[in-house]
Specification:
Blueprint (H helix, E strand, L loop, with lengths): L4 E8 L9 E9 L5 E6 L4 E6 L4 E3 L10 E3 L5 E6 L3 E8 L4 H5 L10 E3 H5 L4 H8 L4 H16 L7 H12 L6 H8 L3 H11 L4 H17 L5 H10 L5 H11 L4 H5 L4 E3 L2 E3 L1
Antiparallel strand pairs: 1-2, 2-8, 3-7, 3-11, 4-6, 4-8, 5-7, 6-9, 10-11
């Protein structure tokens, strides 16, 4: 099997002033000409895929994707196939950042692919040209930091509430109930759902389930056998194996065993099939 050349050591954190908006950057490079089948699945975030030369197609519609695009909050997974060599930078946003860029509700762009040019015109063109010309990815990321810092300084929205709730869910590794969220925030279930729909694009329950699933992924990716998978599933808050398998299939489209047998895990939510 020919695989991507993946620079996971190129996962880079943004500077502190940007951490409220950007989780990290990832650089990926494919030097082979073969067709690659890849799957993007939800990790609770939104993001930007930035490329200088990439022939990426939707498996579902067979349509070619924009050269660079935003992806909205995912309720499940999206399959693509690529033709030929490419390099890309994924800018993984905090879940509430994209709706600020787009000036819309996050719920409105759920599962959407949006061309960068439709939103930012030609502002990403210098970065695309740098990728096309093989510039140092770290240099490109430093320039992206400068770009997004300038953008962030103009943002007037207050993310204090949603950030606090997000951190509470992350600290509890997704194993929180709606009642616990109501107690933590003082909000009713309906108020929480409206807030999450607007800022994150999904319900608090769905977001918590995704965080719990990714906590479990972080455990099993360390290397386990079948017996320890059962134990870790309980540790992550799954009541039984059928519950875990259902969450896997709904969010990743695979069983846990199929996921573990996936040879090329390009990022925490991006795999080669």
């Amino acid at each position: 099997m020919i695989s991507f050349y993946v620079h996971l050591n190129m996962q880079i954190s943004p500077p502190k002033p940007l951490k409220s908006f950007i989780r990290h950057y990832i650089f990926l490079e494919n030097t082979e000409k073969d067709i690659k089948n890849v799957r993007l699945f939800s990790d609770g975030s939104t993001g930007l895929i930035l490329s200088g030369e990439m022939n990426l197609y939707s498996h579902l519609s067979k349509e070619q994707m924009p050269l660079s695009f935003f992806y909205g909050p995912l309720s499940s997974y999206k399959d693509f196939y690529s033709k030929g060599r490419f390099s890309l930078i994924a800018v993984v946003f905090q879940p509430y950042f994209l709706n600020t860029l787009l000036k819309s509700s996050a719920k409105e762009v759920q599962n959407q692919i949006i061309s960068v040019e439709d939103i930012l015109k030609n502002k990403m063109q210098p970065f695309q040209e740098s990728l096309f010309n093989g510039a140092d990815p770290l240099s490109i990321i430093n320039h992206l930091n400068a770009f997004f810092t300038g953008f962030a300084e103009e943002i007037k929205s207050d993310y204090g509430f949603i950030t606090a709730v997000q951190q509470y869910i992350l600290l509890n590794k997704g194993a929180v109930s709606l009642k616990e969220l109501e107690k933590f925030t003082g909000y009713s279930e309906r108020q929480l759902e409206r807030k999450f729909d607007h800022e994150i694009g999904m319900s608090p329950k769905k977001y918590s389930n995704i965080i719990r699933l990714h906590y479990f992924l972080s455990l099993i990716n360390k290397g386990i056998d079948h017996q320890s998978m059962t134990k870790l599933s309980y540790d992550a808050g799954y009541s039984d194996q059928s519950h875990l398998i259902r969450e896997f299939k709904n969010n990743i489209g695979l069983t846990p065993k199929q996921y573990l047998n996936t040879e090329n895990k390009l990022a925490v939510n991006f795999i080669e099939l």
